[in-house]
Amino acid sequence: MTNIPANIVEYVQSMWMAEMILTYLHIDTQGKLVDWGGYPQHYGLTSLTKNQPIVEQVSFLDGFLDVTHTEVLQSLNIGGNRCINAHIVPLDDSIYVLLFDVTAEHDQQQKMQQQVNELSILTYRQSQLLQELETTRKALSEEKQQLEQSIKLKSDFIATLSHELRTPLTSIMGYTELLNNAKQADEYESNYLESVKKNANHLLSLIDNVLDQTKLEIGQIKLQLNNCSVKQLLADLKSLFLPIAQEKSLLFDIKIPDNFPAQLTIDELRFRQVLINLITNGIKYTDKGFVEVNITWENERLQFTVTDSGPGISSESQQKIFTAFHREHTANKLPGVGLGLNISFHLVELMGGQLTVESSPQFGSNFTGFISAASAQFAITDKFQTNNTNTKILLADDSLDLRSLMELYLENGGYKVITVNDGQEAVRMALQIKPDIILMDMQMPVLDGYNAVKQLRDKNFTGPIIALSGSNIEHDRNYAFKVGCNKYITKPIVPEDLLNIISQVIVQHRIKS
């Protein structure tokens, strides 16, 4: 086979079947046989003649030589219980026909079909068990619905109660402030008004905590990410808590590095809520000494520590300190219902982080945590951000093994994958589900990838399509782009490269859109 051009040799190698080729036919543009090699007698071709029409010598090629790109005639029965695949490859001003013996593969497929039939019988026998399972599932579903309804009623009640309480509380707090500002109140009256205001704020905080606790239980709290100036947030908290700490003669400080980013992308409201709960606890339980907050940022993690010189927490209590309604025995005379730390713990988890405590009696406590926080200067806008979980990929390939392998790659990459095994089904499914991206094998039965892509573009499918091919011939690559592919990947496929290419193609498509 030394006369085979280098491109054809590379093509054969890309099919991973170089050891299986038994012959090749070289045909000119007039359809006449130029040359051949290998073992044509293996296919019953015992009387080949050069410069004679090939269709008169190889009947199964009649009608298949007028090709614009590589075509594959699959599972041709040439007699003698022998099956072949014929690869018709246009190259320069001639055509090469590569013959592969797939008799063993064909026999294996028949055996697999027999196994499929046996599995169908087994599936029928299992139908009664499935019916019983479905009955059980329905019963569990009804119980789940009743539980969800109960939780919803609880949530609705808490929300309604919160609304009904917050409205008059807002009035009380507002009018108290107006009354305090409206006249020159004496010292006693000012103390009375300040007491009303303080207790109203406390009651409002309790209502918010109970409502947040309920929302966390049923998963109703959703993060609202925005660009936040953490330095300004901390300055506001320092102004808020410094007077409170000074009333107890406590030192209070918030430390942040000078090179801290100007803005981070976080849920500002929820992060503020976490810090308020932790600082409030620190000041509440500390009678002398200090409360200090330290903030740092590195590798897209916003880290924080709230340290106090209070009485500390016993080892036993540390195990349940983040449990709802848990309160230390030393807090029995202090306001609160034990929800602040539990809410903070779950909010930090919701923001992609973790909250822990280190403490010992008489030596104070350290509440340390972190949340995910991208620098706003480099944050990708929502419009172009890739969310693999919500990205649908349609994978079309006639090889079951390759489909299964690539499906595993893609699912590990976080994508939702739908698979089909021929081009015709790929067209139908793509128009039905409108995937975000299509991975299309170029050589498939029923309808090949080239024509499938052409049909999709003709039917106004505008999503990106990546061609998957065993051919490294430039002519095939160019034809794939001509019919409408956005990218061309040659097999074998490296999973990391595949995921990177998919991500790039999706982002590029969104930018253009």
| Fraction in helix | 40-55%
Proportion of residues in β-strands:
15-25%
Number of domains in the coordinates? 4
Strand order of the largest sheet: 2-1-5-4-3
Q: Whole-number radius of gyration?
A: 36 Å
| SS-derived structural category | alpha/beta
Shape: elongated
Number of helices: 13
CATH superfamily of the largest domain: Histidine kinase-like ATPase, C-terminal domain
- The CA-CA distance between the termini, in Å, is 50 Å
Uncertain residue segments:
378-385
Mean pLDDT: 80
Let me know the largest β-sheet: 5 strands, antiparallel
CATH architecture label of the largest domain: 2-Layer Sandwich
CATH topology of the largest domain, by name, is Heat Shock Protein 90
Q: What is the CATH class name of the largest domain?
A: Alpha Beta
Would you count the extended β strands for me?
18
Compact summary:
With 513 residues, this protein is an alpha/beta fold.
Strands, helices and their partners?
Elements (H helix, E strand, L loop, with lengths): L5 H9 L6 E8 L4 E6 L32 E7 L5 E9 L2 E8 L1 H23 L1 H56 L4 H31 L8 E3 L1 H18 L3 E5 L8 E3 L1 H18 L4 E9 L2 E8 L6 H4 L21 H11 L3 E6 L5 E8 L1 E2 L16 E5 L3 H13 L3 E5 L2 H11 L3 E5 L7 H10 L6 E5 L4 H10 L3 E4 L4 H18 L1
Helix pairs in contact: 3-4, 4-8, 5-6, 6-8, 10-11
